[in-house]
Amino acid sequence: MDEKKESASGVTQRIYEANVLFGVAVNSAASIQAPVRAGGQLHALVSLVFSVIAVEALLNEATEMAGHFSKYAGEPQVVPVFAERLAEAEKAHGSLESKLALAYEILGKKLDKGALPYQDFALMVRLAWCTSKAMRGLIRKLLLKSFTRI
Questions:
Q1: Using an 8 Å Cβ cutoff, are 109 and 82 in contact?
Q2: In angstroms, what CA-CA distances link 104 with 11, 37, 41, 136, 142?
Q3: CA spacing 20 to 30 A to 20: which of 53, 55, 61, 91?
Q4: Coil, strand or helix: which one is 5?
Q5: Which residues contact 21 (CB under 8 A, 6 or more apart)?
Q6: Helix or strand or coil: residue 12?
Q7: DSSP string covering 46-99
Q8: Interior CA angle at 117 toward 114 and 118, to 5°?
Q9: 100 and 109 in contact (C-beta within 8 Å)?
Q10: What mean pLDDT comes out for the span 104-116?
Q11: What local confidence, expressed as pLDDT, does residue 101 receive?
């Protein structure tokens, strides 16, 4: 949801949503009533998918903000570099994992892809992608089935 609203001063403000998406993930995780490793927990699935969506939203929003702030004198040189490189990665349809690693690199941090928490994150992304792909296929089948009856 890309909401924008006009403030009292007439300046358009962007409403950022990564925190809302992460809130959905946290609330869903807190709602899990089953013991660890019990299957069939919709709240676990919602938490997983929304956690990944929240990270992607955060990177996209940080890229957008860096693009806006890079126009101002006095901003650190890393700000326009961050905006440009992450925007390029998005245009090239880079994976979420590669965009996160790129953000770390630009900010001068080393992301160890062979260690936790990166491996857990990469697994979450793959699970969320497979789940959403399976759900899209199921929804497509249900829609086709309902439209062929008409």
A1: no
A2: 32, 32, 33, 32, 41
A3: 91
A4: strand
A5: 50, 53, 54, 57
A6: strand
A7: HHHHHHHHHHHHHHHHHHHHHHHHTTSTT--THHHHHHHHHHHHHHTT--HHHH
A8: 50
A9: no
A10: 91
A11: 94
Cβ burial of 70 (10 Å; 0-12, 13-18, 19+) is middle
Tokens of 8: 């009292």
Q: Which amino acid is at 106?
A: I
pLDDT tens digits for range 14-55: 667 899 999 999 999 999 988 887 877 888 888 998 999 999
The HSE-up count of residue 36 (CA atoms within 13 Å, CB side) is 0
Q: What is the model's pTM? A: 0.77
Which structure tokens are listed for 12?
């358009």
The CA distance from 70 to 150, in Å, is 54
Cα–Cα distance, 55 to 97 (Å, whole number): 10
